[in-house]
Amino acid sequence: MLKPGKRKGEWMEIRLPDSLVGVPLHAVLKRTPLPAKLLDKLLESRGVHIQGPFLRLRLFPRERRDFPSDWMELNILYEDDFTLVVNKPAGIEMHPSVKGQRRTLANAVAAYYEMTGQDLRVRHIHRMDKETTGPILYAKNEFAHQHYDRMMREKKIGRIYLALAEGVIPRDKGKIDLPIGQDRHHPTRRRVSETGDPAVTRFFVVERFDTHTLVRLELETGRTHQIRVHLSHIGHPLAGDGMYGGHRDLIARQALHGEKLVWNHPWTREKLEVEAPLPDDFAEALRILRRRRKNG
To answer: Which residue among 22, 233, 237, 278 is least crowded, i.e. fewest CB within 10 A of its CB?
Structure first.
């Protein structure tokens, strides 16, 4: 595999090892991680050529932004030429759900790209509910997008969550393997359903309180409201999650936070990970529970 080169505008320039200098282009391209379909597209558009000892690939073409810009302060957890990871705050939707909607995370990322001089489309790889917090992975070019989409299908992007569930979960760890479908009585709610899509959630107890349990969760699938539905179904809805039976005496939203994101770099395949700090309202709920436990 060829090492990544240096970016020069829209191009990546890779210095070839001596053993590949003078080798036909098609043989050199086999040493890259680019999928055949994208390579064909680059060849057709003259986006690849060899210049002396350098292979040049047009991986970073300027693109028309696909969302209007709405500035808001973003917490960038990771960024390179292929990838952006943003720490999503509570109370903001991923992207517009109705025509003309603004002030979504997609609008904020578009504004960030504009302010930093990056002419890019907004390509999110996975989603989070409006009130859930944590890292969101974005691809910054077509190659990265194809790579991450494949990794998602193959379940090779790790998403680890922290949740504050109501009640005391007795088992230290467990697996919830229950299909999830739409609730026909409610337009946005989901439920466990025999005819739903397969959904698997693994949980690990982190800390127990008199009335709640802090759990760490790993998703094997990514169904809408998966964690919320699964925990509610086993009798432990998330604190603050009114839609699925939780109460709002500790926190005013569902107590669900994306703690860690783990992925492999599109070109080098290097394992990368980021952790997102616990938001203030979630941390305050834990402080209250620990104080109650200490005071008996």
So the answer is: 22
- Map residue 141 onto helix, strand or coil: coil
CB of 225 within 8 A of CB of 129?
yes
Closest CA relative to residue 129, chosen from 95, 103, 102, 78: 95
First-last CA distance in the chain = 60
- 184, with CB counted inside 10 A (0-12, 13-18, 19+), is exposed
- Nearest alpha-carbon partner for 24 in 49, 4, 46, 56: 49
Q: Burial code of 133-164, b = ≥16 C-beta within 10 A, e = fewer?
A: bbbbbbbbbbbbbbbbeebbeeeebebbbbbb
Cα gap 177→183, rounded to integer Å: 18
pLDDT digits (tens, 9 = 90+) for 226-239: 999 999 999 999 99
Among this protein's residues, is 129 annotated catalytic?
Answer: yes
The pLDDT mean for the chain works out to 95
- The residues with which 213 forms a beta bridge, in sequence order, are 165, 208
CB 133 within 8 A of CB 117: no
- 18, 66, 70, 129: which one is catalytic? 129
Alpha carbon distance 126, 95 (integer Å): 12
Cα torsion at 61, 64, 66, 71 (round to 10°)? 100
Confidence of residue 167 (pLDDT cuts 50, 70, 90): very high
What distance in Å separates the CA atoms of residue 185 and residue 204, rounded to the nearest whole number? 32
Instruction: Tell me which residue of 121, 166, 112, 119 sits closest to 142, measured CA to CA.
Output: 121
Task: Say how far residue 184 (Cα) sits from the centre of its chain.
Answer: 28
